[in-house]
Amino acid sequence: MEEKYCSVISEQLEEPLFGSAGQTDTFFLLEYNGAWEGKALEKSPLPSAVKERLNDLVKALPTAKSLLIKRGAQAIGQTSSGQPGLGQTINFYIAHAAEAGARLYRFELSAYEEVLDLDLPGVLAGQRRFEHYLQAGPLYLICTNGRRDLCCARFGFPVYQALREKVGESVWECSHVGGHRFAANVYHLPEGVLYGRVTLPVVRGLIAATQSGQMRLENLRGRSMYPQPVQAAEYYLRRESGEVGLDAYRLRQAIEHSPGHWRVRFTSTAGSTEHELEIRLEKSDQQVFESCTLDKPTSIVQYKLLTIT
Q1: 199-240: per-residue pLDDT in tens?
Q2: C-alpha pair distances (Å), 1 with each of 4, 8, 10, 149, 291
Q3: Cβ atoms within 10 Å of 101's Cβ, excluding its own
Q4: Verdict on whether the full-model pTM lies above 0.85
Q5: What is the pLDDT of residues 283-305, one digit of tens each?
Q6: Rounded distance, CA 194 to CA 173, Å?
Q7: Fewer CB near the last or first residue (10 Å), C or N of the chain?
Q8: Among positive and negative, which fits the CA dihedral 123, 127, 131, 134?
C-alpha cells in the first residue's frame, strides 16, 4: 500500500505556511547522538536531573523550547549511561530570538550533569560574564525525528545532508519543532525564523537569503518570537512591500479587537514609517492531518489580509 504523508496532503490542499510557527523565543539545544524516541528528551537515557532542569525551565518560560540535536550518524562515542566517550565534549546551545540583539551561546560540556551548574537565568538575562560564550551564528536546525513522525525523517534528513554539505558545522538535526505536516522544517537561529516545505532545490536560496540578512517568504512559517497572528501580518507586509530584510521592521502593537480579528502595527527601521494591517482568522471546510498516523484531522485555518495602510 502506498505510504501517505501528512505533509504531502497538506501541500496538495495548499494549506498556508505563514502564521504556523509555535511562539518560541528561547531555545535550549543539547547534543545527544543516541537514538531518539518519539518524545526525544523525555524518553532519552540522559540523567533525570538534567531532563528535569530543562523541563522546569520550559515550564517557567512559556515561550521556551528544549530540543535534542545531533549530526547524522557521527556519534560521539557515548556510553550506555548517555555520557560522552573519553576526550569527547557535548555541545549545549542557548539561543534567544529578538528583533534586535538576538543571541546565541555555545557551551562545551564534559558530562551532561554540567548543565545543572550553569546559571541559565543569568545567560538569558544577557549578563556580561557569559559574553565569551557568544557565537556569531547562524545555526540551522532541521527536524529529522522519524519516530515522532515519518515526514520528519523522509523529508528532513535529505535537507539536513544538503545543508551540511554547503555550510558545514553550523547545521544540526533536531528533535520535534512542531508541525510535521510542513516538513521539511528548518529553523534559522538565533533569529528564530522557521521555514517549512524546504526541499533540495530550495536549500541554495535559503542559505543565500540567510547569509544576506534576509527572509525567504516562499517557505516562511513565521518568526517564532511573534504570536501567530503577528507572524501572518509580517508575511503580508513583506509580501506587499517586497522588503525581505530581516531587520526592516519592528513590531509596535498587536491587538485582537474582536475574536479572530487583529490589528497589527509595525514601524519601518528606515524612516520610521508606520504600517497597520488588519487580519482575520478563517477556517476552511477542508481538513488535513497533524501527523502521518492520519488519526488527527484538523481544519485548515489561515489569516486573511483585510486592510493594509
Answers
A1: 999 999 999 999 999 999 999 999 999 999 999 999 999 999
A2: 9, 16, 20, 18, 18
A3: 9
A4: yes
A5: 999 999 999 988 889 999 999 99
A6: 14
A7: N
A8: positive
Residue 254, pLDDT above cutoff 70:
yes
In the chain, the amino acid numbered 269 is T
Spell out the SS3 assignment of the chain: CCCCCHHHHHHHCCCCCCCCCCCCCEEEEEECCCCCCCCHHHHCCCCHHHHHHHHHHHHHCCCEEEEEEECCCCCCCCCCCCCCCCCCCEEEEEEECCCCCCEEEEEEECCHHHHHHCCHHHHHCCCHHHHHHECCCCEEEEECCCCCCHHHHHHHHHHHHHHHHHHHHHEEEECCCCCHHHCCCEEEECCCEEECCCCHHHHHHHHHHHHCCECCHHHEEEECCCCHHHHHHHHHHHHHHCCCECCCEEEEEEEEEECCEEEEEEEECCCCCEEEEEEEEEEEEEEEECCCCCCCEEEEEEEEEEEEC
Tens digit of each residue's pLDDT (9 = 90 or more) over 53-102: 999 999 999 999 999 999 975 444 444 445 565 558 999 999 999 998 99
- What topology is assigned to 1-226 in CATH? Glutaredoxin (3.40.30)
pLDDT of residue 3: 67
Task: Give the start-to-end residue ranges of the domains of the chain.
Answer: 1-226
Please provide residue 283's backbone torsions phi and psi, each rounded to the nearest 5 degrees: -110, 135
Distances from the Cα of 59 to the Cα of 53, 65, 66, angstroms: 10, 9, 10
Sign of CA dihedral 227, 118, 92, 32: negative
Q: Tell me how far the alpha carbon of residue 136 is from its chain's centroid.
A: 18
For residue 63, count other CB atoms closer than 10 A to its CB.
15
Residues 110, 113, 115, 118: is their CA dihedral positive or negative?
negative
